[in-house]
Amino acid sequence: MKKLLILPLLAFAACGDAVVSDTDVNTDVNANNTANNTANTTDTGGTANDANTANTTDLGGEDVPEFTMPEQKPKDPLAPRITQNYKPKRDPQFHFEGTEITDAQLGEFYIEADVSIDKQPVGTMTFVLWPEKAPITVRNFLRYADEGFYDNKVYHRILRDFMIQGGSSDNKASGKGPHGMIKGEFSNEPEWAHRYGVLSMARGGSPDSASGQYFVITDSVAPSVKNLDGKYASFGIMVHGVSTLESIAEVKTKMNPMNGEPSVPLQTVVVDEMRVVRGTPTVTEKIERPPFDLKGEDERVRIQHILISFAGTGTTATRTKEEAEALAMDLLKQAQEGADFAELVRANTDDPGSVANTPPGSYSLLNTRQKAPEYSEEQLAEKAELEKAAQALQTELLAQVQAKTKTMDEAKAEFFASETMTKLSTYSWMPRAQMVSGFGDTAFSLEVGEVGISNFDPAASKFGWHIIKRYE
User: Fold this and answer.
1) Cβ neighbours for 52, distance < 8 A, ≥ 6 positions apart
2) Distance CA 433, CA 469 (A)
3) What count of Cα atoms within 13 Å lies in the side-chain half-sphere of residue 138?
4) pLDDT one-digit tens code per residue, 20-78
5) Residue 230 sits in the same domain as residue 84
6) Total domain count, the chain
7) Which of 45, 71, 418, 468 would you call most buried, defined as having the most Cβ atoms within 10 angstroms of its Cβ?
8) Is the same domain home to 247 and 376?
């Protein structure tokens, strides 16, 4: 189960704008506030923020906060000045910095990127480019690729449901491109929309601050992805390499200590070589995110549960571990023999916050990467009216608590037992990942009407024993 916290009567989620920053000093936002992902991308090492994130950065922000930086004008995209100490890794083949290749000819080129994870090759991603939409951005990217700038660069920021970001000059998420900044080329047109497989530029706080860092979108429906349109310069799309992109996106990550975003890869993901090729890609495939394999489990379940805890597990329980186990086994037997599960919840559970749910002890769970069911317009209208009614009821009950005509416990009990909350609960779904793993594993293993148990385990079920009954 989730952490046992006393929560306000009703909480409403807030959404933030996501940013892909050009540097990691500008917080790149994260991936997973379930309701709204924000995209933060920085060209110096930041990235697009998942719309599910509370923090927001200015997509593509620089490692230096914007207010400390002097305002800079974008360099001439055709012949930007090369940083004095920069030397290309290889002799350019096409020389995109010059004027010999016109903007109209940029569409004759495409990109191939060979990728490895912990030195094991995982495939090649192939991208076609959109010079008709973003000629400055395309020329800039082709120039860097032609000079070998992206060779041996890591993907330093990975958000499974948002994007992967790379191209930092120092491979530490804070490196700018050596050729200066370019003008932002943004669009809200559907043809150039950010979606799975799209290439886009990270940038700093200024719209015209992209340089060398880029990102590749790894989801099409996340709010954080949709938030990028009109703010970030999409300039190409993958035509081959879905398995490679998925291998990168599935790399496990840890929290970034600077911003709390779970985006720092636990494996080394490297672009071994990025090539500019003249012509038309000979290998293409359908570009879409593959469905998640649930391995036979259902997308959603509704369950009731009883938590039996013991002293030292972070709950208010005072019984010993041995006493808790004995009680849990007894309750499991009673439930499996047909005892009234709601009454067992009320009399025994150490999860007080779930007692007032309808039915008592209930949770509605979404399986991994699954979404709440699609609702009709009538259902959405009903849900909106129920939310208004719930807020009104909450205000009324809190006023009674303030007036000392009701205790907070009485107000909570009345609130959750109300017909409004009973109806509203049918629209509320919780991601499986918000519960301890043992809870979800047991819940999704049950058939409707079946009772099971998640035994105490310091890692998988740290609060104690969960007796779980699936009712839908």
Assistant:
1) 30, 31, 32, 33, 34, 35, 36, 37, 38, 161, 222, 223, 224
2) 19
3) 24
4) 766 533 333 333 333 333 344 444 333 344 333 333 333 333 333 232 333 444 444 44
5) yes
6) 2
7) 45
8) no
